[in-house]
Structures are given as C-alpha cells and as structure tokens.
Amino acid sequence: MPTNQATPVRQKKASSRRKKSTRRTFPRYTALTLEISAKILVNLVLLTVVMTALNKLIPTYRIQVSRLEEVKQEVDKTKTRVDELNNEFTRNFDPYQSEIIMQEQTNQIKPNQRRVIWLE
C-alpha cells in the first residue's frame, strides 16, 4: 500500500509543474509591448491634433500676412504724403519765402520789378 500512496503525490507535483509551464506560454514582454503600443497611440493622437490645428492656422496666417502687406503699403503712401505736406508747411511758414509765396498766389510783383513776357 505504501507504493500506491506515493504515486498520487508525484502526480500532483507533475500536474502543478504543468500548470506553471502553461502560465509561461504568455509572451515575456507583454507589459513592455503594451507600454510601447500606448505611447505610439498617444503620439498618433497628438500628431493628428497638431496637424488639424496647423490646417486651421495656416490660412489665417496667410490672410494676416496679406493684410500686413496692405497696411505697410498704406503706411508708405501716407508717409510720403506727410513728408510732402511737411515740406509745404515749412515753406509756407518760412519768413524768407513769404514774399515769394505771396507773388505766386496773387500774381503781383514788386514795384521795383518788371514783368517779363516771353513771345515766340
């Protein structure tokens, strides 16, 4: 009878070994694989968000650049006009030019001057 009792104990040990071996059939790097997959998925989501944002921002940027160019052109035109007006203003209020300006605007000449008329 002792021989019969010894064999079932060995069978239990053998079955427990088999269970351990079935547990090791899963891949060794399951956690690492899941982590890398999660990182790739998150990066793809972020890439999609960034591309969508850029697609919305690029047309807006182009419109702003064109508006900025228009404003720069208007500023240049206004600057030239301001320079012309400033020159005219300084000429009109220059005491040495006042006599000349009066002659230009009224067509009067000084009493000691003679009018010259060119004829062909």
TrEMBL record:
UniProt region (Disordered), positions on chain: 1-24
Membrane spanning stretches: 36-58
Alphabetic keyword roster: Membrane, Transmembrane, Transmembrane helix
Keyword Transmembrane helix: yes
Extent of Basic residues compositional bias: 10-24
Entry protein name: Uncharacterized protein
Organism: Dactylococcopsis salina (strain PCC 8305) (Myxobactron salinum)
